[in-house]
Amino acid sequence: MKRRAFLGAGLAAGALFASNAGGRAEEPAPRATGCLGLIVERASGSVLLIDNVRRAALGRIEGLGDLSHATAVFSPCERYAYVFGRDGGLTKLDLLESRIEKRVLQSGNSIGGAISDDGRLIAVANYTPGGVNIFDADALAQAASIPALGADGKASKTVGIVPLPGRRFIFSLYDAGEIWIADFGDGATPKLTKFANAGRLPYDGNVTSDARHYLAGLFGEDGFAHIDLWAPELKCERVAQNYFGGQQRLPVYKMPHLEGWGQSAGELLLPACGAHEVLAIDLQTMALKKRIPTHGQPVFCVARPDGREVWVNFAHPLNDIVQIIDVPTLDVVHSFAPGPGVMHLEFTPRGNEIWISARDADRVVVMDVRRREKIAEIPAQKPSGILFASRAHRLGG
User: Could you give the CA distance from residue 271 to residue 338 in angstroms, rounded to a whole number?
Assistant: First the structure.
């Protein structure tokens, strides 16, 4: 059964009605959606509904399954969130009612998803059995299925799925080493564009905020796969090749995520895979501009909304530190320890605060970005991802 547990009385819209002196029920005060968000509680299959203006948890929504590698996207109106669970679950949440609207188990193992630019289609990338499933965003009825069969005819895991303008999605095939674009502009039957030989084992991908550059990280090669989506004729090329410079790759304890890359002006800051470095790529030439030494193996590189700084967290066992890179100089300018097991970082929409999940301390730390000081803490059960509803208006991650 669907369950909801509220941390404070009267905090969910529609949850309670107050009575006035005459005994007549009053409507609850309306709540805006732009301040809402979610904290994923990975160990308990639950999420906290949060208000980033009040720095408060409003309620806990339970029954979301395996959230050990969960993420979410939001509807254009910011009322609904779609949570992708590792168990193949796709869950639609009503943020105003603080409840599960609908939940479907659409595969055996999924790794993330995306929402189309018009907000009408939800795409889920799957590990098992592979491929991408497409759902109607309103009813979560399945609208299409795209088996990910590589050129060799074998099924492949799908990763790095993001939306493109025109009801399109782009994603990578991990085992097959390919990148596909699925175009739903003419209805429920997609037109597929396939790029073979994109590179060995693409592990994640993302698109820049102008929807021009799609990059996929390559676990089996020293570099990235790149497609310029503005080019008259699309092609896939390798960029930033041999960024290790002949050095041996370190053991990878946690795969880096391109979802949170740092894009600022003409540069892209990406986590290196198997090195204690962040890579700066020139978006005009797609050449490697600088290798920035860091505390550990970076997982997320998250740009402040104004682009001036990029905040970075790291893989186990060096995951208690966050570092800040100054974009003009491409140097690390500050390091601090917000708590053990830092899993994710999320800026508020205008960048005045950053929320940091400290999984092993069961808390989310809220920091003033300019002063670099902690201003609040929110208790949470093994928190990982933090996502604000304002993400509804972004492309990619």
Answer: 20
Tokens of 219: 């676990």
Tokens linked to 31: 């709540």
Encoded amino acid at 213, one letter? H
Q: Give the CA radius of gyration of the chain.
A: 21
pLDDT tens-digit series, residues 203-262: 999 999 999 999 999 999 999 999 999 999 999 999 999 888 778 889 999 999 998 788
What predicted TM-score, i.e. pTM, was given to this entire model? 0.92
Q: Where are the beta strands (DSSP E) in 119-244?
A: 121-128, 132-136, 142-146, 158-164, 168-173, 178-183, 191-195, 202-207, 213-218, 224-228, 236-239
* Cα separation, 130 vs 127, whole angstroms: 5
Report whether 395 contacts 163 (CB < 8 A): yes
Exposure of 302 by Cβ count < 10 A (0-12 exposed, 13-18 middle, 19+ buried)?
buried
CA distances from 148 to 68, 130, 180, 191 (A): 24, 6, 9, 14
